[in-house]
Amino acid sequence: MSMTVLMWALAAMTLLGAADVLLTRDVMRLGLGLGTFLLGLAGYFAAFGFGLLALAEVFVYVGGVLVLVIFAVMLVHRERSGVPRLESRHDPLAAVAAVGIAALLGAALRPLAALDLGGVATGVDAVGAHLLGARLAHFELAGLLLLAALVAVVSVSGVERR
Amino acid sequence: MNAVFVACALFAIGLYGVLVRRDLIAILASVEVMIGAPLLLLVALGARLDGGAAVESIGLLLLVLAAAEAAVGLALLVLVARVVRTTRADELVEVGER
Description:
Helix content of chain A is about 75%, strand content about 0%. By secondary structure, chain A is mainly alpha-helical. Chain B is an all-alpha fold.
C-alpha cells in the first residue's frame, strides 16, 4: 500500500516537473521544473533499490547539470541584456506524433509492465566489481568520452567573438 | 502509477517539447526529459527482472553520457548566444539562410 502511494507521488512529481519544462515561459521556472523532474527520477531509482544510481543522479544532474543550465542562462542573459522568453509553437501534428509514439511504446511494453513489482538490493561493491570486471571496456570508454566532452567544451567556449 | 507508462509519457512530453519549443534552452531541457525516460525504463525493468549490479552500472554509464551531452550542448548554446546574439531556433535558421 505504502509502495503504491510512493509510486503515485513519484509519478506526479516527475510528470509535473516535465510538464513545467514543456509549458513554462519563464527560464527560471524551467530550471525549477527540470530539478523537480530529476529529483522525481532519483526518487524512482531509490524506490527500486538502486541507491547508488539515485545518489549519482542527484550529484551529477541536480548538482551539476542543473547548475550548468543556470550558469548558461545567466551568461546568455548577460550577452543579450534581457531575460529570454521561452515561447512555443504548439502544433496538433506534433502532439499527434508524440502521443502516437507514446502509445506505441506503451503497447509494446505492456507485457513487461504487468510483471510483479519488486525492488532489488545492490551494493556499491557489486557495482564496482561489475564496472571494473565485465563492463571495464565501457567504463574506460565513458571516461574517454568525458575527456573528449571536456576538451570540446573548452574549445567551443574559447572561440572569440566575431 | 506504473513506472513503465510514466516513462512512455515522459518520452512523449520530451518529444513534444523538442518539436514545439523555439528557444534552444527549452529544447535542451526537453532532450533531458527524453533521456530520463529510457533511464527510468531501464531501472524499472531491471528491478522487475532482477538486474542488480548490471542495471546499476549501465545506468551510471548512461548518466555519464547524458552529462557529457548536456555539457557540450550548453557550451554550444553559450557560443551561439555570443556570436549570433539569439538562442531562438527559428531566428538561427534565418541567420543561416542569409
